[in-house]
Amino acid sequence: MKEVQLLWVHNSRLEPGTLVKNHTHDYFHLIDVTAGEMAFRLGEKAFALHAGDLVLVQRGMVHGFSNERGEVLCFREVKFTVQGQTWPRLLQDASGAVIRDPFVRKLVDQMTAEYDRNRTLKEEAALAALKTLVLYLTADQRSLDRQEPGVIDTAGYNKLSRRVIDYLCIHYGENLSLDDISAGVGVTKNYLCNAFKLNTKITIIDCLNMIRIRKAAEQIVYSDLPLTQIAQMCGYVSVSHFNRVFMRYVGMPPGQCRRTYAYDVAGEDSRIHGAFIGSVLAGKSITPDLIREIEDHK
Questions:
Q1: Sign of CA dihedral 124, 128, 129, 134
Q2: Which residue intervals of the chain bear CATH 2.60.120.10?
Q3: C-alpha–C-alpha distance, residues 285 and 216, integer Å
Q4: What is the pLDDT of residues 117-134, one digit of tens each?
Q5: E-assigned strands of the chain?
Q6: How much is the pLDDT for 206?
C-alpha cells in the first residue's frame, strides 16, 4: 500500500469556548475524542462527538468544530493522504459517520504511542498501524467490490446504490419483489426506488433484469444448459417472459443467441455484436455508459 502516506499524529486540546472555523483539507483527517464533548460540523450536518467517538473526514469536505462546554476538550488527530482512485473511493463510505470501534481506537493508540514515546522507527511503525486502519475501514466495501466484478461497474455510484446492486447480484436467481429488496438492504421501498433511480438513472427492476440477462447470456454462450433451466436459474418463472426480456436487452431471442455466439472468443471487438452481448463476450463489466446505451436502444 504505497498509496498511503502519514502526515501528522498529534494529541490536541481545545479550551472552553474555542472554535475551529469551517475549513477543508486536501488530505484525510481522523479525529478521536478522548475527553470532553466536541460540537462537530461536517458539511450541512452538525452533531456531538463524545469521548470514545471517532470521525473520518474525507479530503475536500468542509468541516469545523468547537468546545461549547466548560471543560477542556481533548482529542487526537491523524492526518494522511491516499493516492490513486480506488482507495479514496473505498474510504468514502467510512467518512462522515461516527465510529465507535475498539479496534480502530487501538490502532490510533498505537500510532500516538509511537510519537509520544519517541520510539525508534516511529514513522514506520505508525504508518503500519495506519495502513491496517485503512484496510480495516474499507473491508466491507472491498468485499462488495470482489463479489461480482464482472456484472456492473459501480465505481460512480453512491453507497446505497452499491448495496442494492450487491444484493441483486447475490439474489438475482430468486423470485424478488421490491418489498424483498427494500427489506434486504434495510431501507423503505419508496425512498429506495427514488434514491436508486436518481443516482443510477435506471429503476431497480431494470437493474435486476440487466443482471439476470447478463447472467443468462453468459450461460447461453458458455454452457450447454437447457434454455428453460437457465431462465429458472436467473429468476424467471415464465419462459415467455424471459424470452421477451432477453430480446429487449440482447436484440435477439435466447436460441438465436446460442446459435450465433456459442463459445465465441472472449475479447472480440464488441462493435460487431450488440453492446450488451459484446460486454459478455469481452468479459467486461456493465458500465454507466453501456447502461445508457442499452436504455436508449431498448
A1: positive
A2: 4-141
A3: 15
A4: 888 999 999 999 999 999
A5: 4-14, 19-23, 28-35, 37-42, 45-50, 54-57, 63-66, 73-82, 98-99
A6: 93
